[in-house]
Amino acid sequence: MNDESNPYDAGEADRTQGSDTGDVFIAPPTEPGEIDDFKEPPRWPSVVGVIGIVWGALGLVCGGLGSAWMMIGPRFMQSGAGQMQGGMPPVMTTFQPGQFVLTIVGTVWSLYLIVCGAVCASRKPIARPMTLLWAVVAIALTAVSMKMQLDLQAEIAQWVKDNPTADFSKTQQGPGAAIGRMAGLAFGLIFGLAWPVFCLVWFGVVKTKPEQMTGDADVPAA
User: Fold this and answer.
1) Which of 9, 119, 187, 213 could form a disulfide with 127 if both were Cys (CB 3.0 to 4.6 A apart)?
2) What are the residues facing 25 on neighbouring strands?
């Protein structure tokens, strides 16, 4: 009979060394409490965080391109207006400082969303108030942007009404032009509200406790 004691049976060690190879073997948890207490961290913070990063990156690209177009676009419009009988609406051929400032603010806010997404993917509880702040401000920015767009469309419509014989006015009289304007507004509204509204509901109603993000009930709230 072999007199050597088994370290697992004796419960004296969590690891033992192989006699021939020198490898170290880690003893798996054997007590019921050790197995039951193990909880896999929640996966949703990684998913929500990555989507937030992608959404923020899209906003960053769109905001950058939009800002550049607002600076150089009026020059192209002025050149085109000179080749059209009756010209074009002034709001399309002049620099709009209000829209430019709003676009810059939105671009910076998209960068902040990327930070929020990274913090959320790291399962840090502070991601919740950070993302809620982003969502509230993003909804406000979208509302202001929609108001500016509607005012812009109203000015263009009034100019078309006052200049019915202009070449530009003739291009705006067909049903396709109206559909295009509505589609543009709808896209802006969906892109501006979809993720902020989701984050507002998700972090404001569904996931309100730190342990829902970390999986650890001992983590204090941010």
Assistant:
1) 119
2) 16
Alpha-helical runs (H) found in the chain: 7-10, 32-37, 44-82, 90-93, 97-121, 127-162, 167-171, 175-201, 210-214
pLDDT score, position 135? 97
Whether this model's pTM surpasses 0.90: no
Contact 167, 85 (CB under 8 A): yes
pLDDT at residue 18 tops 70: no
**Would 4 be classed as within a structural domain?**
no
Nearest to residue 130, comparing CAs of 120, 142, 140?
120
Provide DSSP, 40-74. PPPSHHHHHHHHHHHHHHHHHHHHHHHHHHHHHHH
User: Is 82 part of any domain?
Assistant: yes
Residue 32 lies in a domain: no
Decide: helix, strand or coil at residue 25: strand
Residue 20 lies in a domain: no
